[in-house]
Amino acid sequence: MVRRRPDRPCRAECARSSYPGDRFNRYWEPYGDGSTPVVESQASVATEAFWNKPPEAVFRQGLTARRGKSLDLQWPPAPLPAASYYLALYFQDNRAPSALSWRVFDVAVNGQLFFAGLNVSTAGSMVYGAAWLLSGQTRITLTPAPDSPVGPVINAAELMMVVPLGGRTHPRDVIGMEALARGFLNPPSDWRGDPCLPKGTSWTGVTCNEDPLARVIAINLTNYRVGGSISDHIANLTAVSSIWLVGNNLTGPIPDMSPLHHLASLHLEDNGLTGPLPESLGSLTRLQELSVQNNNLQGSIPSSIRNRAMGDISFRFKYTPGNNLS
Q1: pLDDT tens string 29-56
Q2: pLDDT digits (tens, 9 = 90+) for 220-254
Q3: Which helix (H) or strand (E) holds 120?
Q4: Has residue 283 got a pLDDT over 80?
Q5: Out of 46, 111, 153, 280, which residue is the most buried by the measure of CB atoms under 10 Å away?
Q6: What membrane topology is given (predicted)?
Q7: 2-161 and 168-325: same fold?
Q8: Nearest to 172 by CA among 256, 255, 240
Q9: How much is the pTM?
Q10: How many C-beta neighbours within 10 Å does residue 42 have?
C-alpha cells in the first residue's frame, strides 16, 4: 500500500516516490506495519477513468485481511491538526479477472461510515470525501459483507488539508513569477502554481503581502544554485521591494527593471551575468542597495548610477571585484 500526505512536507529521509505516470507529480510513501498481509495485483487498472488520475503503480500492491475479518488501519501514522481534509481511498481486487474477482465491504473513518457496500473488482475503485473533518489519530476500517468471498483490500490513500485561498494573487505577478520560473534552471521544486496562495504556502524564497489581491514584495534565492537567466517579465513585479539572487549560476543580461518603483534592494552579486549595467537602475528613486560584483558585466557605469553613488550617501553601490565596468 502507498499513501500520499501532501498536508505536511516529507523530510529527506522519507521513502517516497513520484511516479512518472502521475500527471500531478504527487509524492507517495509506502505504508505498512509488517503484520498486515500484502497482496500483488494480477491485473492493470485503467486509471484514466478516475477523475483524479492516480498513477497505475499505486495499485500494484495492497493490504488485505482474511475472509470475514475487518481490516483496521491507523493512517496517517501521525496525528492530524483539526481541519477539513480531502480524503481519497483506492482499491482493486488483486486476483486474476474472473466471475469471482470482486469484494464487497463497508469503509469507515474514525467509526463514521465513509462508504457502504463498496464493490471492488479488478478494474479498481476510488471513494473520496471532499471536506472530511479530521483531528488527532485517524483510523480507517474496512468491514467485509457477510457473503464476500474474500476479505477487504486497500491499495492507496491520499490526504490533503483543505486550505481556503482567502483571495487571489495579482495576475501580473503570476505572469511575472511564472516567466521567472521558466527562465531559471533548477528553481526550487515548489515554484509552480500560485506564487502567493494559499496563505503561508508561498513559493520558496518568495514573500507576499496579505492584501486581498496579493502582491510579491520580496524574492530571496541566495545560494540556491539556480541557473538560467533573469526573465524580462521580472518588470511585472511592480510591488517588489527586495530582490536577492546572490550566489547562483545566472547568466545573460540584467533586464530592464524601470517599472519597479518600490525596489529598494537589488543584489545580483556572485553570478555569471553579462552585458551592460542598465541605465534605468539609476532612475529607481527608492533603490538604496545595488550589488553586482563578481559577474561578467561590461561597459560604462551609467551616469544615473554614478551620480547617485557620488551624491547620495544612503545609496550603496558595489560592482568590484569582478566585471569590466568603468
Answers
A1: 888 767 788 889 888 888 888 888 888 8
A2: 999 999 999 999 999 999 999 999 999 999 999 99
A3: strand 112-121
A4: yes
A5: 153
A6: Single-pass membrane protein
A7: no
A8: 240
A9: 0.59
A10: 13
Q: Is the peptide bond before 171 cis (omega within 30 degrees of 0)?
A: no
CATH of 168-325 given 3.30.420.40, 3.40.630.30, 1.20.120.790, 3.80.10.10: 3.80.10.10
Can you give the three-state secondary structure of 198-265, one letter per residue?
Answer: CCCCCCCCEEECCCCEECEEEEECCCCCCEECCCHHHHHCCCCCEEECCCCEEEECCCCCCCCCCCCE
Q: Tell me the CB-side half-sphere exposure of residue 199, using CA atoms within 13 A.
A: 11
Question: Cβ distance 300 to 323 under 8 Å?
Answer: no
Instruction: Give the residue among 4, 31, 9, 8 at the shortest CA–CA distance from 19.
Output: 4
**Residue 214, strand partner residues:** 169
**Type of residue found at 232:** D
Is the domain defined by 2-161 classed in CATH 1.10.4160? no
